[in-house]
Amino acid sequence: MPLPLFWFFAIVMLVGGLAVITLRNPVAAALAMVSSFVGLAGLFIGLNAYFVGIMQILVYAGAIMVLFLFIIMLLDLKTEEKQAPKVVPIVGGLGIVLAFTIQLIGILASTPDKESQPLDLKEAAVAYAEKSPRVAKRLDDGQLPDVNLVGDVIFTGYNLPLQIVGVLLLVATIGVVVLSKRQTV
Fold it and tell me: Is the domain defined by 1-81 classed in CATH 1.20.120.1200?
């Protein structure tokens, strides 16, 4: 990825994330989150992770944000009233940012400057030979079937957590619909 494109997508992502936490209007904050997701998808595509980038746009910027906006509209949230900022939460937030920055600098300073080993597709094909012959054949042909590999990992190793998250989202949506139905007495 060319450096100017990287900086463009990184700035879009960071400005969108900053807007999410600073905007008072919930709908505007949700739309700012969409711009942050689009910037993140651009960074994924720049890393040649095309599947993850497209899924970022389809799932998060598309489906999840439509769900968020639907819930926000059902709750009929009003814009927050402007209040004087309290010092304790601001100091606490800045302290957490400072702690994470120090930790990140420490990790990056102690990380050896080595290049990663190239991916041996033939060795990966042998590892997938019994588990998924179709993936093994594509790896043996020199192709990296990222969609097949992601699907294989999700549906074999993380099937139960995936189902639990789906049920949790369904329950949350039903809960918001039930809470939004106001009983008139």
Answer: yes
Alpha-helix runs per DSSP H in the chain: 3-22, 26-46, 50-55, 65-75, 87-110, 121-128, 133-140, 146-157, 159-180
Q: Which residues contact 144 (CB under 8 A, 6 or more apart)?
A: 119, 121, 138
Q: Where in the chain is the domain with CATH 1.20.120.1200?
A: 1-81
Other beta carbons within 10 angstroms of residue 14's beta carbon come to: 12
Q: For the segment 67-106, what is each residue's pLDDT rounded down to a tens digit? A: 777 777 777 666 556 677 788 888 998 999 999 999 999 9
With vertex at residue 75, the alpha carbon angle to CA 70 and CA 81, rounded to the nearest 5 degrees, is: 120
> Nearest CA to 132 among 147, 150, 152, 146?
152
